[in-house]
User: Which sequence fits this backbone?
């Protein structure tokens, strides 16, 4: 299914290009502009070159120290939630009921946290975790654990992590479930005939089939946790002290709180650059995986059955029934 | 599909974990403030509707919901209408810079809102859109338009190319083919994309709060107002929170089978 070359297609893409350029390129130019200048107020700017960037990447200055500390915290946070959410999501996806109305019920309940406004997610956990009025905080304290996310660093971290697990594990689970559903029954029958163990089935059949969705899940979760702002801001406000101040929270503090335009702009650019690099790795790996699948499908069509929830069926290449 | 031992238990526990905090919010919204502060009760002993009544009768409260819905709907309409032709182009044609453009769109979906908060504030103040639903609707396009393009591209690719060719042979002009044939064929895809635009615009707060001050303030920003001199009005906060969950909960049912594909940017 080769696409035809047609430069007129640009006319169809033009509206998207204009809308996104208006809201992405234009603001970003302002940011670049600010990042090179300093101001004494009154809208008088003067050239500062790469001064802000030097300060930003030098841990001995105030700005650099704050940025690198929040970056470290943010990376640690992302790694922790990936380590919890990905295995948990796989387990939940494997635990989905097979058929009947319970499937729909589980899907709806799983999706529920994903559709709650982010600050309401924060509010829910703020209320739920408070030692005086929240069920969680009350029960923990009654059990003899001194839990208070407002004053204790570790408690604040645990609360933010549990909140994120609550909020986003469903995403990993739903993606894995979609991947699992695309495995044809014949694979399992073959495994049964071979006398494969439960673990072997998981390792040889289910995990490889989930590869693609897992890749998407890991990168979406990494991106979104790397730019997390609203939920921890509502629950802890970045505190106690600065212990849960992530990069976005630090950035908003500098930009909208102190109105330190130059510093905020320099931070924005470095932040954006990190995201762009990760995004590029993701895109390359994903398109390569897609190309590999196509090659595979062409050489041995039987090994590439049509996924149940496929959005991109390629009817000419993929026969519906496999002989596997 | 073959599941693991103890799956009912695992699923049950996980669902309880998901529902318990939400139950607590609903529970609080039906309690009086004195009950919330003074005792720990697992269900409202003196159930009251006073908080909901306050939200539905006080204009400063319910206008927040209207404001939110206004920019969310505007954003969904803009996103879908510009994304549809682009999705068709990406799915059917190869053109100069197509892959780079596709990647650039993806990178905008991933861009942190915090980076754009301040420049958006400047931009929309300069063109006189600050504090209008249009400002927020356009700002949310930065992540919703790419998402819509990615999702719709998947659905358009599912339509066999022979249909296009037959239509053009039958003398359909391009716009007529697009509206009469393609759009009805991918109607469910448009529904899914619209749902996801609606959702991501509905849950976002940072940009919505930064770009509004009084007349277009979203409900999520108004919720912070429950802090008063006499302390937090927890019941009111909980009731407002419950009301923001409802729109999402209502529409999940219709897209339950497509939720995964939408979250995967149309790539499942």
Assistant:
């Amino acid at each position: 299914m080769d696409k035809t070359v047609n430069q007129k297609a640009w006319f169809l893409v033009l509206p998207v290009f204009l809308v996104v350029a208006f809201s992405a390129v234009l603001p970003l130019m302002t940011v670049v502009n600010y990042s090179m200048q300093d101001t004494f107020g009154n809208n008088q700017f003067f050239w500062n070159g790469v001064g802000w960037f030097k300060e930003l990447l030098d841990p001995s200055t105030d700005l650099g120290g704050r940025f690198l500390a929040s970056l470290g915290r943010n990376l640690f946070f992302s790694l922790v939630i990936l380590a919890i959410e990905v295995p948990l999501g796989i387990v939940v996806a494997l635990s989905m009921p097979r058929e009947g109305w319970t499937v729909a019920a589980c899907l709806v309940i799983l999706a529920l946290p994903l559709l709650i406004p982010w600050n309401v997610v924060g509010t829910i956990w703020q209320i739920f975790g408070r030692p005086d009025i929240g069920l969680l905080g009350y029960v923990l304290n009654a059990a003899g654990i001194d839990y208070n996310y407002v004053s204790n660093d570790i408690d604040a971290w645990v609360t933010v992590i549990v909140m994120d697990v609550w909020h986003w594990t469903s995403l990993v689970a739903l993606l894995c479930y979609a991947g699992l559903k695309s495995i044809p029954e014949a694979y399992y029958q073959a495994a049964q005939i071979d006398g494969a163990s439960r673990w072997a089935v998981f390792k040889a059949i289910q995990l490889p089939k989930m590869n693609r969705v897992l890749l998407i899940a890991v990168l979406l979760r990494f991106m979104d946790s790397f730019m997390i702002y609203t939920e921890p801001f509502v629950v802890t406000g970045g505190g106690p002290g600065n212990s849960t101040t992530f990069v976005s929270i630090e950035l908003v503090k500098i930009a909208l709180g102190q109105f330190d335009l130059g510093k905020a702009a320099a931070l924005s650019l470095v932040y954006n650059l990190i995201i762009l690099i990760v995004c590029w790795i993701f895109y390359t790996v994903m398109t390569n995986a897609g190309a590999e699948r196509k090659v595979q499908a062409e050489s041995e069509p039987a090994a590439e059955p049509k996924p149940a929830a496929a959005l991109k069926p390629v009817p000419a290449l993929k026969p519906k029934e496999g002989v596997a | 599909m073959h599941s693991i031992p103890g799956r009912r238990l695992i699923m049950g526990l996980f669902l309880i974990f998901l529902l318990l905090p939400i139950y607590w919010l609903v529970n609080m919204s039906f309690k009086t403030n004195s009950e919330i502060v003074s005792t720990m009760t697992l269900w409202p002993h003196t159930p009251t509707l006073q908080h909901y009544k306050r939200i539905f009768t006080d204009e400063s409260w319910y206008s927040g919901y209207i404001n939110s819905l206004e920019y969310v709907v505007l954003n969904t309409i803009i996103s879908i209408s510009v994304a549809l032709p682009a999705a068709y182009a990406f799915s059917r044609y190869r053109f100069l810079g197509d892959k780079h453009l596709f990647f650039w769109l993806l990178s905008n979906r991933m861009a942190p809102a915090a980076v754009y908060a301040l420049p958006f504030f400047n931009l929309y103040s300069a063109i006189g859109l600050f504090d209008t639903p249009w400002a927020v609707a356009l700002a949310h396009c930065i992540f919703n338009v790419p998402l819509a393009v990615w999702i719709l591209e998947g659905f358009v690719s599912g339509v066999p190319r022979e249909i296009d060719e037959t239509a053009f042979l039958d003398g359909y002009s391009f716009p007529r083919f697009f509206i009469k044939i393609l759009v009805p064929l991918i109607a469910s895809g448009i529904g899914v994309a619209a749902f996801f635009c609606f959702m991501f615009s509905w849950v976002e707060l940072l940009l919505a709060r930064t770009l509004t001050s009084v007349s277009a303030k979203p409900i999520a920003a108004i919720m912070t107002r429950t802090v008063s001199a006499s302390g937090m009005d927890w019941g009111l906060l909980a009731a407002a929170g419950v009301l923001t969950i409802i729109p999402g909960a209502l529409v999940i049912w219709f897209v339950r089978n497509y939720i995964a594909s939408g979250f995967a940017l149309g790539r499942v």
